[in-house]
Specification:
It is built from 7 helices and 13 strands. It has about 240 residues and is an alpha+beta fold. Helix 1 crosses helix 6.
Length: about 240
């Protein structure tokens, strides 16, 4: 099959979304084809973003619901309105008393099936508009009720006060920013996300994802995968 026909038929591939790039991916081709992505990444986050082209967009819902892996650096002692380093500081608390074993001890309560309150600054919608957009427009937005999410693996891999590093494997609908904020409160302080990277989404890893310099027509057509081959892996 020639590249143009393959592109129109579609499939799935992954890119590495750079930090501070909200759009995540823009095609460098004039070919008209249906495009979608399998899960929003925060503006200040980087990492794996799965793209669907053509018929591949029908499989993106499975990507949204599928497992994801993250590497995150949390910062103790300050909380922000967005729960990350890009937000306005809204609270501060002592943190000098906190050690790595304190972080590790509280992580147990965040493993398995838990209830989590999503951030107000999120892509979740109220009346068809993103909550984050409503907040930035000056509206008073109440957080959505806590909802069940799944955390399969959660470990503290490093600690250098005020920073703590976490590796997370979770299901769909999980917010790492909420986790970091909740961990900060659980150890008697507050916290926000300093750096966040999605290292895997479904079967796609960082090693398989296209870097920004490789977002070309030829590379995309070579990277496209028939979603039918990924059904079992996505599940």
């Amino acid at each position: 099959m020639v590249p143009m026909q393959l592109l129109r038929q579609g499939g799935l591939f992954a890119v590495i979304k750079p930090k501070d790039n909200r759009a995540g991916w823009r095609p460098r081709t004039k070919v008209r084809v249906k495009i979608g992505h399998g899960g929003t990444l925060d503006k200040n986050a980087s990492g794996v973003l799965v793209i669907g082209l053509g018929q591949g967009t029908k499989s993106l819902k499975q990507m949204l619901q599928g497992n994801k892996k993250y590497s995150v650096i949390g910062c103790l002692g300050s909380g922000t309105d967005t729960m990350d380093a890009g937000g306005k500081v809204t609270e501060a608390a002592p943190y000098d008393h906190i050690k790595q074993e304190d972080i590790e001890k509280v992580l147990q309560q965040f493993r398995g099936s838990i209830l989590q309150v999503p951030p107000v600054y999120s892509a979740l919608k109220i009346g068809g508009k993103r909550m984050s957009d409503l907040v930035m427009e000056g509206h008073d937005v109440e957080p959505k009720p806590a909802r069940p999410v799944m955390v399969y693996h959660l470990f503290c891999t490093a600690f250098d006060s005020p920073y703590f590093h976490l590796d997370v494997t979770c299901g769909g609908g999980f917010y790492v920013r909420s986790l970091v904020s909740d961990v900060g409160k659980a150890v008697g302080s507050c916290a926000h996300v300093k750096e966040l990277c999605r290292t895997q989404q479904g079967p796609f890893t960082l090693n398989q994802a296209l870097k920004e310099c490789d977002w070309t027509f030829d590379n995309i057509t070579k990277a496209l995968i028939d979603p039918r081959k990924l059904v079992e892996e996505i599940r």
